Amino acid sequence: MTATDPRPSLVADIGGTNTRVALATGGAIREETIRRFRNADHPGLAPILRTYLDGAGAGKCAGACIAVAGPVRDGVATMTNLDWTIDAKTLEQATGAPRVAILNDLQAQGHALGHIPPGKLTPILRSAALPAPGATKLVIGIGTGFNAAPVHETPQGRLVAPSECGHVTLPVRDAADLRLATFIAEIHGFPGVEDVLSGRGLERLFAFQGKETGQTGDQTAAGIAAALDGQGPFGPRAQATGRLFSRLLGNVAGDLALIHLPFGGIYLCGGVARAFAPHLAAMGFTEGFRDKGRFAGFMEDFSVAVIEDDYAALTGCAVHLAQAQ
């Protein structure tokens, strides 16, 4: 909404499985307007947005901003885990909005920082010192996929740089890591970070643990997460999987911290991150994060928290639209 246009804006978060849509006024979403759509039930984004607007009786919008789980290049989004391609024209036609923006989903999470209630942030690691005002931050998404984005404060406003770091090579620290990388490469031809640190990655780690111990049977990511307390017939195997996941996440998050120097804090988001929030500290995340040799002490300067707000990307889209006026 602008000073001359009283209409609300539309914001959407398109993941690999679901799309969340809401109306926003200024930089705030209207929580009562949030709706969720299953992507498999629709041929593309445009029908979802038209269905939503028809149901909301909103008509044309003042602006529209979407966050997508995939790379955005020259205003065109290509979904990583969904066969959809989205451009500005598609968004304009579906919403009637004169101003549109397409962000990577981690960029939207970055724009949400500072607008998330403190009660929706779960601390995992606290830094040794208070960050300076305007210090760089980092968001890391662990859900259907994996990605990260640095958040920089500049004189021209906030800059959230896109990336596709979930597809970099999985780090190898020892012989067990090498066996894991080989195991993943045999399935996909390339051992990428996302192939391990994601929902389906958790399932592959469970399969790898089975191979290492001679156990059979697969399990879903949700089932593994539910058994992290060690209970049930496959509880011990789920715990071993959780420890491996947590240590690897710590390793990768530590690498990203050294690359971007986010003294303003590291924020984990996504369904898998939320599921692991109560277990990360006990399962080796801290040790993995600070396993940097002579830089182990330096790693104490970074704080880590989990974003518990499932709609933070929607807030980020609303904030980005409001600040871009």
From TrEMBL:
Gene3D superfamilies: 3.30.420.40, 3.40.367.20. It comes from the Bacteria. InterPro entries: ATPase_NBD, Bacterial_glucokinase, Glucokinase. GO terms for molecular function: ATP binding; D-glucose binding; glucokinase activity. Keywords: Kinase, Transferase. Pfam families: Glucokinase. One of its GO terms (biological process) is glycolytic process. One of its GO terms (cellular component) is cytosol. SUPFAM superfamilies: Actin-like ATPase domain. The keyword Kinase applies. Coiled coil: none annotated. PANTHER family: GLUCOKINASE. Belongs to the bacterial glucokinase family. This is Glucokinase.
